[in-house]
User: Fold N-acetyltransferase domain-containing protein from Parnassius mnemosyne.
Amino acid sequence: MEWGNSKSVIISDKYRIECLSPATIEGALRVIKESFCQDEYVSIGSEVNKNPVAAEELLELCADAALDGVSLVVVELSTEEVVAVAFNKIQVQSSSVSEKPFFEIFAEERCTQESSRSLIQFMAIVDGRCNLFEKYGVDCSLEIMFLATLREHRKQKLGTLLCKYSVDLARKLKDGPITKITVDNLGPKYKMIKPREPNKTYPKICQAIWTSIGSQKIGKALDFTVHLTVPLKEFVYDGKPYTERIGDDSAFCEVVAKALY
Assistant:
């Protein structure tokens, strides 16, 4: 993928894809709030879709991940509005068994709502069941954390393109950072987030948890390997399994990965 000086690529006569920047952060978070927090299976299962405060805590998670400088957005050319986003996260292998993963720490220390804590703990638990660092013998990955498209822009393959270009971006990180986002860029609402220390390594795999039929189809199209399948009925919020609220008892998620080299 050639980003060029502008770090963006025209992908059709309607859209371009580009690295998340200070100018697009607000729009990217709006897509998560209006799309992921309302329509994603795990958001419905954990009732984040009914809890505005919990949704705000997921936006804080996205703002924190943005500091890694590896997230991507799709911008509509005619309006300059962000219409789809992949919030990506650099994951580094823990240096000790006692060191807690990022999602687990976030759920414990920064979630005040049980619904947002349930969703992020789901991510931590599923990630923890499949040690991709050990499977691939690597120390660092790029995780496609939250993928979302506004309802009126769906069925344009924007999610597939975001994932494809996320893999391409992950490969380029071997040569150094592509873009930089600082805490100041996030705005005063997120000034409590800790600045990011520079990574001393780079991703060797791209990973994700596919929680819907749509994302699972994307993974198949892009040749991700499925390493683990987990029924969503195993996860319970407020006395009900996720699947009861989703309305599909057979719903499941996949832990997937793709080697970059």
User: Anything to note?
Assistant: The mean pLDDT is 94. The longest helix spans residues 114-129.
